[in-house]
Specification:
The protein is mainly α and about 180 residues long. About 80% of the residues lie in helices and about 0% in strands. It is elongated, with a radius of gyration of 20 Å. It starts with a helix and ends with a helix.
Length: about 180
């Protein structure tokens, strides 16, 4: 009898390489978190034009413009992921992104137009967003790998690398001129 109980217990454990975990709690949690980042990306896409309009430095304006286009692609990629998992692409409010975007709006409101202080603040706000996205996409990619969703993991890793590149560009812009100019204002 002990062998039977042990066999039953073992049969409930997913192999991790089948990609067939749709009924597991972990899969449901994963999909829920995909819905969260989907909301985040959609709302970031709406916010980036405002960041661009508020920026003074041509480099920063260009970076926001480029990231707006990339964010639209992230949304499409997430829709592909939902489709590949046979899930409806629905968004669930992301409290973290809502807070980060609210903070970014506060920076715009509290700084003077045309200043490098505002640009430095915009970079700070944008990097907070990027770091949130990096953490989320990195973790989701590992989750996907652990469930055997290798195609999904590859797409999430591709987005992760794009987010890291955006963060590096923002650092380069900040360290290149904006921070020094902001310190002199």
């Amino acid at each position: 009898m002990a062998t039977t109980a042990k066999t039953k217990k073992a049969s409930k454990k997913p192999s991790g390489n089948t990609g067939k975990m749709e009924d597991s709690e972990f899969h449901k949690f994963f999909v829920d978190e995909l819905k969260d980042i989907y909301w985040a990306e959609k709302h970031l896409a709406k916010a980036l034009p405002k960041f661009k309009k508020a920026a003074t430095s041509p480099e920063l304006v260009e970076a926001f413009e480029k990231h707006a286009l990339e964010t639209e692609q992230h949304i499409v990629t997430l829709e592909e992921i939902f489709s590949s998992l046979d899930e409806k692409a629905t968004a669930k409010k992301c409290d973290a992104m809502a807070g980060l975007l609210e903070e970014a709006n506060g920076i715009i409101e509290e700084t003077d137009k045309g200043t490098m202080i505002r640009d430095a603040g915009l970079i700070l706000a944008a990097q907070k967003v990027e770091h949130y996205e990096i953490a989320t996409y990195g973790t989701l990619a590992v989750f996907a790998e652990n469930m055997g969703h290798t195609d999904v993991a590859a797409l999430l890793n591709q987005t992760l690398e794009n987010e890291k590149a955006t963060d590096a560009i923002l650092t380069q812009i900040a360290e290149g001129t904006i921070n020094a100019q902001a310190a002199e204002e």
